[in-house]
Design goal:
With about 220 residues, the chain is an alpha+beta fold. The protein is built from five helices and 13 strands. Strands 1, 4, 7, 8 and 10 form a five-stranded mixed beta sheet that branches. A five-stranded mixed beta sheet has the order 3-2-5-6-9.
Length: about 220
């Protein structure tokens, strides 16, 4: 059971990691050519910053509001984009240098229903597959745990049956044996069959019942 709890905890951590958001894109000039050698940063905590030699960038962010800034050396800001992340996913946000957009157009809400310039690559199918895998693993572990417990209980019951037969002079009727256990006749019969197969006892038909004899 302890192993099951550890695995469930690991799965919860994995799901939290899967829920992170990746924001990536490129920076273009007015001719729609990628600008190389650009410093791109986002005001996350801590601040993430990179020098892009191919005009592209990628950041991993949590939910919240951010400003992505592109600068050319020495410290000339050439583009800025304000974003608000409200859901997990993989988003493409391209930056355009020297474009003067109204403030309301710079603030873009990233969500699953957004149909504007943002390219949303849904991870819904991945989440469904992950959840199905998680549920399958949990069900398997539960069934395995129950099976092991059932086997342990069966072994304990077999030992008790042997002890009772010994205490009764190494032989007892199946009917009398049942009186020692609050179990169904089917369960007792199953234990007796297992002991017979292991050559621990011998079952002899006597009238309408059976006599159980302990083998030496």
């Amino acid at each position: 059971m302890k192993r099951l709890l550890i695995i469930i905890l690991f799965i919860v951590i994995l799901i939290n990691n899967v829920s992170a958001t990746t924001v990536h894109g490129s920076i273009y000039d007015l001719s729609l050519n990628k600008i190389n050698g650009v410093i791109i940063e986002v005001n996350s905590e801590p601040v993430q910053r990179l020098i892009s030699n191919d005009g592209s960038y990628s950041f991993d962010l949590e939910r919240g509001e951010y400003i992505i800034t592109a600068k050319k050396l020495p410290n000339e800001k050439i583009a800025e984009e304000k974003i608000s992340i409200s859901s997990a996913g993989d988003f493409n946000i391209d930056l355009f240098a020297d474009i003067d957009l109204p403030e309301e157009e710079l603030l873009r809400e990233i969500n699953e229903d957004f149909t504007g310039e943002l390219s949303f690559e849904s991870i819904s199918y991945f989440k469904i597959i992950l959840w199905l895998l998680i549920i399958s693993i949990i069900l398997f572990l539960i069934m395995d745990y129950k099976k092991k417990n059932s086997n342990d209980m069966s072994d304990d019951l077999s030992v008790k049956v042997i002890d009772i037969i010994k205490s009764e002079g190494e032989r007892i009727s199946q009917k009398d044996l049942r009186k020692h256990f609050p179990l169904s006749e089917a369960k007792i019969s199953l234990v007796i069959s297992e002991l017979e197969s292991k050559n621990k006892i011998e079952k002899i038909k006597r009238g309408r019942g059976n006599i159980l004899i302990l083998k030496k």
